[in-house]
Amino acid sequence: MRIQQVLNHQGIVHTDPEVMSGVPVFVGTRVPLQTFFDYLEGESGLAEFLEDFPHLKTQA
Fold this sequence. Notes:
Elements lengths: L2 H7 L3 E2 L10 E2 L6 H9 L4 H7 L8
Antiparallel strand pairs: 1-2
């Protein structure tokens, strides 16, 4: 199963053609999932991502 499918199933990511032209986003936001991956692949990391998008919370 692809990571996006798992995140969709868990209610973390949503895809809707009416929101951001169907780009996968975090539920209740317009923050694309790809932005998260870009932070992780770059030099930033999770802490900076959460600092830049404080409305997103980690799940325990």
